[in-house]
Write a structure and sequence with these properties.
One of its GO terms (molecular function) is zinc ion binding. It holds the Pfam family Carb_anhydrase. Its main location: secreted. By secondary structure, the chain is mainly beta. The chain has one domain: Alpha carbonic anhydrase (Carbonic Anhydrase II, Roll), CATH 3.10.200.10. It has 5 helices and 16 strands. The strands form 2 sheets. Strands 2, 3, 4, 5, 6, 7, 10, 11, 12, 13, 14, 15 and 16 form a 13-stranded mixed beta sheet that branches. A hairpin with a 2-residue loop joins strand 8 and strand 9. It is globular and about 40 Å long.
Length: about 270
């Protein structure tokens, strides 16, 4: 998750806490999701997403130096099972690419790192703005979707986004998406999810994020993932790759899941 200062990459993770003490806290993100450490809870309500359907308007898409970020309108919001309403602020991606194997998700499942991870950042509606909420103890919530490769099919819902990556090759460059359909970008099953209390996964690492990690993954073609991994440059004029933080200790936190069985890593038919 990226909301704050530009990170220089995973190699500098060990030094984050020197400037941002919260990065050495006990409730950091991301984490490894393990079945033996998950508590099953039966929820009558899932996540209620409003305004995520296709919208024809201007969505700014920017290379912020450590990821590509798409600004979202306040008409998009998420109500979580406890009834709290969170307003959408932005979405961004984490990916790999620097090694021979494509893997760059932040959260892992049973130690398995997925190809890419998408974060939709929201802030608590009790606050007047994101700026007010971002440091509040209950200020933020992130909806995360893990992405894996389907060798055969291009995900057409991502085509518009992927085709505009070349327009934001350099940090600071912004382009405009004229339409965005988050409902179709996300997996069909929005009910089954993991949830836990954690942090921003990049500096300043504030421990005020309610995480919701969808159980069902999104499928992209290998060509689409390669495009994401190789299109952007960072502030040092290097190809922007491996922009994910490694998993952090769970410590005494509880991870909940509202489904019984673990999701399988399966290919689309």
């Amino acid at each position: 998750m990226s909301t704050g200062p530009t990170q220089d990459g995973p190699l500098d993770e060990a030094h984050w806490s020197q400037e941002y003490p919260a990065c050495a806290g006990k409730r950091q993100s991301p984490i490894n999701l393990q079945a033996r450490k998950i508590r099953y809870v039966r929820l009558r309500k899932g996540l209620l997403l409003t305004g995520y359907q296709a919208q024809d308007r201007k969505f700014n898409m920017t290379n912020v130096g450590h990821t590509v970020m798409i600004s979202l309108p306040s008409s998009m919001h998420m109500v979580v099972p406890d009834g709290t309403k969170y307003i959408a602020k932005q979405m961004h991606f984490h990916w790999g690419g620097a090694s021979s194997e494509m893997s760059g998700s932040e959260h892992t499942i049973e130690g398995i790192r997925y190809v890419t991870e998408m974060h939709i950042v929201h802030y608590n509606s009790k606050y007047n703005s994101f700026d007010e909420a971002q440091y509040a103890p209950d200020g933020l919530a992130v909806l995360a979707a893990l992405i894996e490769v389907d060798d055969y099919a291009e995900n057409t819902y991502f085509s518009n986004f992927i085709s505009h990556l070349e327009d934001v090759r350099y940090p600071g460059q912004t382009t405009v998406l004229k339409t965005l359909d988050l409902e179709d970008i996300l997996p069909p099953n929005l009910h089954d999810h993991y949830s836990y209390k954690g942090s921003m996964s990049s500096p300043p690492c504030t421990e005020n994020v309610y995480w919701f990690v969808l159980a069902e993954s999104v499928k992209l073609s290998k060509a689409q993932v390669l495009k994401l991994e190789n299109s952007l440059l960072d502030g040092r004029n290097n190809t922007l790759q491996d922009n994910y933080r490694h998993t952090q200790p769970l410590n005494d936190r509880v991870v909940e899941a509202n489904f019984n069985n673990r999701p399988s890593r399966r290919r689309a038919n």
